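User: Just a sanity check before I run the rest of the batch. Below are the structure tokens for the first item. I only need the designed sequence back.
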């Protein structure tokens, strides 16, 4: 004898997300975006500025090699190299100073460089380089940089531990924060807060 089993009916739910649930999800996404996006942008800008440390170090090394090879006095090295610059093709040259590539021909800016460079030179009157010429270089964002016109400072001698915002030879804080120009720079190494060389170490 066969038993009759009624067919089980599937219950299909017509329920979806409520408006409150959707609003909660949208709010959470907005909060996460508000936190994550600025951090990501800061990370990208900070990674760009690593170029300044690398190229500025090469520039300083080349300038010191030239000074030694030519047996220049600190005063004559300051006169020759102060306001010197290294820029890329198509960039506008500063109104003062000499191109570093004419002084040290092997110095050329890579075509994909994000920054152009200007040199400020002075003879130190204190600190580890007392009596020698020291340099403060400004890397200025080119048109391809995250912040065109944004500035990163590089000191030929590292900043002291007391110099706020500096990491060894570099102050990239204003650039990472999105500032253009020298606004926000602090004194460190042989760089002043205006991005020019200073005779005493900070």
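Assistant: Here's the designed sequence for the first item:
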């Amino acid at each position: 004898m066969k038993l009759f089993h009624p067919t089980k009916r599937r219950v299909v739910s017509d329920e979806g997300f409520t408006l409150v649930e959707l609003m909660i999800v949208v709010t959470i996404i907005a909060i996460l975006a508000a936190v994550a996006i600025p951090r990501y942008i800061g990370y990208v800008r900070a990674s760009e500025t690593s170029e300044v440390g690398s190229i500025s170090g090469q520039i300083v090394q080349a300038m010191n090699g030239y000074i030694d090879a030519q047996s220049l006095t600190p005063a004559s090295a300051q006169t020759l190299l102060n306001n010197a610059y290294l820029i890329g093709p198509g960039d506008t040259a500063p109104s003062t100073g000499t191109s570093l590539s004419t002084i040290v021909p092997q110095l050329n800016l890579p075509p994909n460089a994000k920054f152009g460079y200007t040199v400020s030179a002075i003879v130190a009157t204190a600190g580890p380089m007392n009596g020698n010429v020291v340099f403060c270089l400004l890397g200025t964002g080119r048109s391809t940089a995250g912040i065109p016109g944004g500035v990163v400072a590089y000191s030929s001698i590292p900043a002291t531990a007391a110099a706020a915002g500096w990491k060894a030879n570099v102050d990239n804080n204003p650039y990472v924060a999105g500032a253009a120009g020298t606004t926000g720079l602090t004194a460190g190494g042989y760089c002043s807060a205006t991005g020019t060389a200073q005779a005493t170490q900070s």
